[in-house]
């Protein structure tokens, strides 16, 4: 039996941005649903953070999610197993009140898992593990120890895996808790990484500047052979353009329509030509344009900011290299949360 595994879809992201939802929809229309039909897949496992905000949902975002995702899955006869993630649990210490349970009750093809549960996918016994918190931690760890399931799927915060291209998580649970399983698939971190047993599968699409150039998509998992196949998303939203006296007349700006673009200036000999280059991008219908000519952060002999790095990468590396007695991982996590909240206000 083949099932589709998808995670961290974040419906309603960036304050229900139309730009982001249009970008999401292209993935679903052109990649996700055609693949389900082609492969004859009738089961989807959603490993958490289906909706973006744990505090509420914009009615327009909910309507979008139902019309473009859940209604279509129901019409196709697809069963959906939805695991509660930290973004869909209202409280931080319990999963009892969660968005997916409250918002999706009308769909008889959707089952929500707020507690660890053993589920049979085809002939494969699988342990579903929702977000671990104060209330369910003891029961979850007990079930992990005692289960006979060979495979686990969940929304886990484990040490030693990439949060994004720049950051490796150095706190959370240790991966050795899952050594008994042959395969562990997880959401939560948006970039792909693994240790041979635990696989963070990554989310379907770009959402922040830290995602530039990072492969996204979903996976098909064969419950008989235990093989997973990535289905990559070819569509991008964020672009870096390196300007080196680039000829604006021959520069093709068409691919940047409705994209978020950053021009990184390496060489600018003629200001008027540069302005025409920028004008051409605006004329192409670029959604958002940033220009980086130099870094304002104070550099020293011990720290240098590189033009290829985004803001969050620079801040995290600065914290890592700083000579302070604070727990740097905690500071980095706080900075990442503040940065993402700031992005959502734009």
Features:
346 residues, alpha/beta, Purple Acid Phosphatase, chain A, domain 2, 3 domains, six-stranded mixed beta sheet, 8 helices, 15 strands, 29% helix
Topology:
Blueprint: E1 2-6, H1 13-16, H2 18-39, E2 43-46, H3 59-75, E3 79-83, H4 99-103, E4 110-113, E5 117-121, E6 124-129, H5 137-146, E7 151-155, E8 183-187, E9 193-194, E10 198-200, E11 217-222, E12 228-232, E13 238-244, E14 260-267, H6 271-283, E15 288-292, H7 311-321, H8 328-345
Helix pairs in contact: 7-8
What does it look like?
- The protein contains 8 helices and 15 strands.
- It has 346 residues and is of the alpha/beta class.
- It has 3 domains: 2-232, 4-Layer Sandwich (Purple Acid Phosphatase, chain A, domain 2); 238-293, no CATH class; 296-346, no CATH class.
- A hairpin with a 5-residue loop joins strand 11 and strand 12.
- The protein starts with a strand and ends with a helix.
- 32% of the residues are buried.
Which term fits the overall shape? globular
Q: How are the strands of the biggest sheet laid out side by side?
A: 4-3-2-1-11-12
Structural class: alpha/beta
One letter per element, helices H and strands E, the order comes to: EHHEHEHEEEHEEEEEEEEHEHH
Range of helix content: 25-40%
* Tally of contiguous helical segments: 8
CATH architecture identity of the largest domain: 4-Layer Sandwich
